[in-house]
Amino acid sequence: MLRLYFLINAQKILQIKKCLKSFNHAKTRYTTEAKFQTKPYRLHRLDKGPEPETTLTKSDALKYFELMSTVRKLEANINILYKAKIIRGFCHLYSGQEAVAVGMYAALRPSDAAITSYRCHAWIYLYSKEDPLVAVIAELVGTRAGCSRGKGGSMHMYAPNFYGGNGIVGAQVPLGVGVALAFKYTQKDAVSVVLYGDGAANNGQVFEAFNIAKLWNLPCIFVCENNQYGMGTSTARHSANTEFYTRGDVIPGIWIDGMDILSVREATRFSINHCVSGKGPILLEVYTYRYFGHSLSDPGTSYRTHDEIQKMRHTNDPIKNFSNQLLTANLVTQDELHQIEAKVKKEVDDATERAKIGKEIEMEELTYDIYANDVMKEIRLTTPFRTGPHKVTVNRSQNLK
Amino acid sequence: MATVKNTSNLLSLVGKSLNRRSFSVSKVAAAKQMTVRDALNSALDEEMSRDERVFIIGEEVAQYDGAYKVTRGLWKKYGDKRVIDTPITEMGFTGIAVGAAMAGLRPVCEYMTFNFAMQAIDQIVNSAAKTFYMSAGLVNVPVVFRGPNGAAAGVAAQHSQCYGAWYAHVPGLKVISPYNSEDCKGLLKAAIRDPDPVVFLENELLYGVQYPMSDQALANDFILPIGKAKIERPGKHITIVAHSKAVETSLQAANELSSKGIEAEVINLRSLRPLDMNTINASVAKTNHLISVEQGWPTAGMGAEILARIMESETFFHLDQPAVRVTGVDVPMPYTKSLEAAALPAPKDVLEAAKKLLKVK
């Protein structure tokens, strides 16, 4: 009898031990990573789409939050500099679209290239290697610490594997397909991410690029950042077919809620797989929104209502929604997020101050870097009486040899 | 007067030289003739063989052997990867060529004629030409845009425009307008090796013309410098400067002038950008008279640029007479045969200008 009693108790003890073990195990897993549902995708010519569920680690969560917050703060500071007339010319801000750039970047590999339009600040920040915040802000201010030494400006910023920053609507799309061609030609394990807006989605050369990318089976991820307006013209007023993810015709497409960073990340993973497994190009339409006008000379309220903008900010903000997701899942604490916000504010404000006081390049550089060699040693200035020297800024050219 | 015996002696001498394989010494041994088409073809072949990154992209370049047969045989030799047929989408495939160049390849982008490149001119100017400057030297664009330029025969207005002045206008481009086979071979090779975007303006009517090729020119490392003109025919009484087909016109005029005792110095520009003013200036300092000859339209053309630069330089003071331009007529190209001929400068026009300047009847 006693032996039976002990046996039953031993079993119970074992059970309790097991329970405790799994409870502890679950508790550890629960705080360092969590599963999230992605937002529903819409598919074009695809039987299977990206995963409906994704796992996010705590460190990645904090990293993405920091990156998105940095982009948001960067653009906010740039807005202030522009209003103070320290930044001139065109300036197209990305505020509201952070989840697209950061979500894609989260999935891209170092070998993958990207090219986009003039709404490029977030992308150049992500791709720049050295002191990226100053590289961007100084370029906008027009001083020598800028990634193009101040000679390019807002729309012409480059970094390794990042081909701009392009001023002509739609021109970047064939260029990006050319990068993909180079990857296939050299058998590089890399994809070319080719971004364009809903405003560019009807441009002829975009379709020329689609055709060739599909025909030659090139590793391109086309990304239509549909922020609902091509400059001041809403999608309904500029496109007979607003299903931009289908406009690649025989190219498979996916519609993604671009305000949800994890949906973007998951779709990017899916697309990279699609390309590197030799299936050719794919077209992603990311639904997103820009808070500012088309550029900083556009208040952005003559073609849309103030209410609409406010509603998006309050109910659909990518950073706010992401942090809510993280807090609800107990993946991060409010404190941790506040700490990051404080850190980001300091970093971006610091960089802004440093970028503001930078110097312009010397006048001599006016005639530098027209050519990659000294075929023309002297460049005519404004009169026939004076020339400027032509020089190549050394240690920068990528394709010289 | 060569007798049969002398000729056979000569031939046996040549034969012996050939046998002794003294090519480099005996220039007597047959100066080989080569068509412009073949010169271009061998330039492409040699450069593709030398550098894996070089590839050709354009309409009909592969299986058709090239609309004008310039790329004949290359697809057979190098295959689909390196000689690529495109759909009829100039803007698209030009952008693709430029993007591939940015990413490190060396594309040769063919236009069936440069008239069609107007579809793509934004990619040539805004994406290719300006990028090195806008990136402050970070991204260079080693792409060649080549194809026939200017008037052909009977192809009428939309297929006959000369784009030399348009492309020469743009900082960031190098623009070449070759004349004969040697020009074409040496300059196309130089263009392909060049780290910058090069616009290479050929001439359809010259494709089939044979020109002598020196041993040096036949070698596979034969490169000509971009931006250097060539004195095609030395002279002392008047300088005639031209590019492409107009060089032929000028040489013909120079021959006729010679029979009147006027020795014209004919300069073959070879490049439009950079423009070799040093050669022109030195020549005008010697001859004191200048005519610029071009097939393109007069307004804001290459001749206008050359004359403006002469005006602005010390060379102006060497002129005994104002410099003049002989150009195409300021009209879209007509189809009517006689009108088409009249719309382009002929040797008689150059003669007329020379005689007027030199005050000769």
From TrEMBL, chain A:
Catalytic activity: N(6)-[(R)-lipoyl]-L-lysyl-[protein] + pyruvate + H(+) = N(6)-[(R)-S(8)-acetyldihydrolipoyl]-L-lysyl-[protein] + CO2
Species: Asbolus verrucosus
Domain spans labelled Dehydrogenase E1 component: 68-360
GO biological process: pyruvate decarboxylation to acetyl-CoA
Cofactor dependence: thiamine diphosphate
Pfam families in alphabetical order: E1_dh
PANTHER family, sorted: PYRUVATE DEHYDROGENASE E1 COMPONENT SUBUNIT ALPHA (PTHR11516:SF60), PYRUVATE DEHYDROGENASE E1 COMPONENT, ALPHA SUBUNIT BACTERIAL AND ORGANELLAR (PTHR11516)
Protein name: Pyruvate dehydrogenase E1 component subunit alpha
Protein's UniProt keywords contain Amino-acid biosynthesis: no
The enzyme's E.C. designation: 1.2.4.1
Keyword Transit peptide carried by entry: yes
SUPFAM superfamilies registered for this protein in UniProt: Thiamin diphosphate-binding fold (THDP-binding)
Annotated CDD domains: TPP_E1_PDC_ADC_BCADC
Stated role: The pyruvate dehydrogenase complex catalyzes the overall conversion of pyruvate to acetyl-CoA and CO(2).
Top-level taxon: Eukaryota
Keyword field: Oxidoreductase, Pyruvate, Thiamine pyrophosphate, Transit peptide
Native organism taxonomy: Eukaryota, Metazoa, Ecdysozoa, Arthropoda, Hexapoda
GO terms assigned for molecular function: pyruvate dehydrogenase (acetyl-transferring) activity
TrEMBL record, chain B:
Cofactor entry: thiamine diphosphate
Enzyme Commission (EC) number: 1.2.4.1
GO BP: pyruvate decarboxylation to acetyl-CoA
Keywords attached to this entry: Metal-binding, Mitochondrion, Oxidoreductase, Potassium, Pyruvate, Thiamine pyrophosphate, Transit peptide
Gene Ontology CC entries for this record: mitochondrion
One Gene Ontology molecular-function label: pyruvate dehydrogenase (acetyl-transferring) activity
InterPro entries xrefs: PDHB_mito-type, THDP-binding, Transketo_C/PFOR_II, Transketolase-like_Pyr-bd, Transketolase_C
Compartment list: Mitochondrion
Catalytic activity: N(6)-[(R)-lipoyl]-L-lysyl-[protein] + pyruvate + H(+) = N(6)-[(R)-S(8)-acetyldihydrolipoyl]-L-lysyl-[protein] + CO2
Domain named Transketolase-like pyrimidine-binding: residues: 34-209
Keyword Transmembrane: no
Role description: The pyruvate dehydrogenase complex catalyzes the overall conversion of pyruvate to acetyl-CoA and CO2.
UniProt-recorded name of the protein: Pyruvate dehydrogenase E1 component subunit beta
Lineage: Eukaryota, Metazoa, Ecdysozoa, Arthropoda, Hexapoda
